[in-house]
Amino acid sequence: MKLLFSISTLLGLLASLNSTYADETNRTLTARARTVTPAVAPAAPVAEPIPVLSTFVVPRKSTEGRDPFYPNSTRVYGTDVSVNTNKAPSIVADLTLKGISGTPEQPLAIINTTTLTTGEAGEVIIKNGRVKLLYVEINMAAGTVLVQIGAERRELRLAPAK
Q1: pLDDT tens, residue by residue, 108-138
Q2: Where are the domains of the chain?
Q3: Where are the beta strands (DSSP E) in the chain?
């Protein structure tokens, strides 16, 4: 019986030592996990990539290239985008001087359906809509009217009598 008691005491003592050792090992591993530095060194800073700009060349003839989306199109050939004119576009307006009336001090001119005097600006009805005119000068003796459309000046004459 003494032997059985000694064996059980010895087993109990071993079990307690084993549990104490396990607790100590767990505490050590946990502490190490908190203080362990990563195995991989921090990477050096990476320089930002420089963006590459795309360049597109418009072909001037069919042997230089074609439109990949519309291969049968010829709209790009023969156009020169570098040509730049500083000339103001001409305003196309069908203006007819119908008559001149009034006094020599205050002459009136009728263009299409609008009657105005010198220095007045107004809209005149034409085939395509309306155009804004400035009556610059009315010459009753010569039967002419000088009008300004945008930056362009035009001289209108009375039609000869039939």
Answers
A1: 999 888 898 888 898 988 888 888 888 889 9
A2: 1-34, 97-157
A3: 97-102, 107-111, 114-117, 121-126, 129-139, 144-149, 152-157
